[in-house]
Design goal:
The chain is of the alpha/beta class and 477 residues long. The protein has three domains: 69 residues, Thrombin, subunit H (Beta Barrel); 276 residues, Rossmann fold (3-Layer(aba) Sandwich); 88 residues, no CATH class. Helix content is 31%, strand content 22%. It has 13 helices and 21 strands. Strands 8, 10, 13, 15, 16, 17, 18, 19, 20 and 21 form a ten-stranded mixed beta sheet that branches. The protein has a six-stranded antiparallel beta sheet with strand order 1-2-5-4-3-6, with no helix packed on it. β1 and β2 form a beta hairpin. α10 crosses α11 and α11 runs antiparallel to α12.
Length: 477
Amino acid sequence: MTGNNQTPAEAPLRAEYWDLTYISGPLVFLKNGGRFPSGAILELTMANGEIRQGQVLEASTSHAVVQVLQGTQGVDVKGTSVSLKQEAATIGVSTALLGRRFNGTGVPIDGLPPAVVDKEMNINGAPMNPVARNKPNDFIETGVSAIDEFNTLVRGQKLPIFFGSGLPANEVANLIVQQARTRDASEQFVVVFGAMGITEREADYFMRSFDEGGQGGRVVAFINKANDPAIERVFTPRCALTVAEYLAYEMDYQVLVILTDMTSYCEALRQVSSAREEIPGRRGYPGYMYTDLSTIYERAGRIRGRKGSVTQMPMLTMPDDDITHPIPDLTGYITEGQIVLSRSLHRQGVFPPVDIIPCLSRLMNNGIGEGRTRGDHRQVANQLYSAYAQGLDIRKLMTIIGEDALSDMDKKFLKFAIKFERELIGQGWTRRTIDESLDASWKLLSLLPRAELTRIDTKYVDQYYQAEEETAATPVS
């Protein structure tokens, strides 16, 4: 488990047990489980000398259930001995992990020697006293207008990204890794990236992009590939978050944690639950999935007296584009909003294809305004939402009655909606500061008559609004 640690001293002799009785999928069952604490890490030594590791999921006086991290293929019930390695799953942590790449359990995969670590930490984290929590605030600039301006990410927040299969979620994740930062350049800002169940091509894309983008030195990456044991996916987000908590609460870093794909994580949970022959819940997922997800998402936050913070952006696939599927549904209950990628915008070539209408950041107001972003931020976002929604309604109307039947004002809103998608949302790989996003928004608002800007104070309209010069009427479609 602790693959990134320094070379350990010679281990003392351990008691070996030959109580393995049954194998089911990735699980093995032992007799006399009371000798092992729940969560302990065991070593399974096979007849050929191969050693595999497992974690105790459940222990009682009569039996113990152990999930084997490397899988159970080739494990022989009679020829395998078991010994206790650690009382709990831990990972070694230090600032030397920055710029390194590990597998889902913390073993280096970047070809470099194991990192020298400061200490071992339990991957399940320490309980955070709710009274000790600080209210999430302060703005994290992702460089993406659709997020910064309309669904602002705040330090200590958990803001998931929902997407359908085939949408450029990996590219959006990479974009955020490359561009995210705090407004205060003196602060130490790092990214902890956890990937679960990704393909070899996707893993190569991420690791190459981090290095070529110039941000690799501030990224700690945990990569669980699709051909790695599924059980490893259960450990990946916990290893990532343990490192993030150390960097934030002990080393005063501002840490952004990106976890993708949480759907793969939940599939691993379902596999373990099925092997344990538990009664399934919705769509076959375990009934405790809500509780399990909360143990991951609730590790975001700020603590009183600590300068650092842990901010999460978990990413997950919506099967069949269904936002009511149990995984996005339960995630939405726990987190503070959601970012939704649009298949329609993607087909139009808009990148990043963020559909701002169903998006929401419940903590947005904590991180914006004078002194944090700009005084006109909230009102401009409200006006853009209103105008874009009106433009979408007119677009639907046009498909019924035709463009010629639209009024001049309808055509203005329709033109606004088209330019809003292509120019403000569709920024490509260009990084925008929040000031540049707001300035681009005012340029778009100039397409509308001043009288239509009913959601913005007059002082801001006087300062920023410049009416577009009237031009000959042209088709807007």
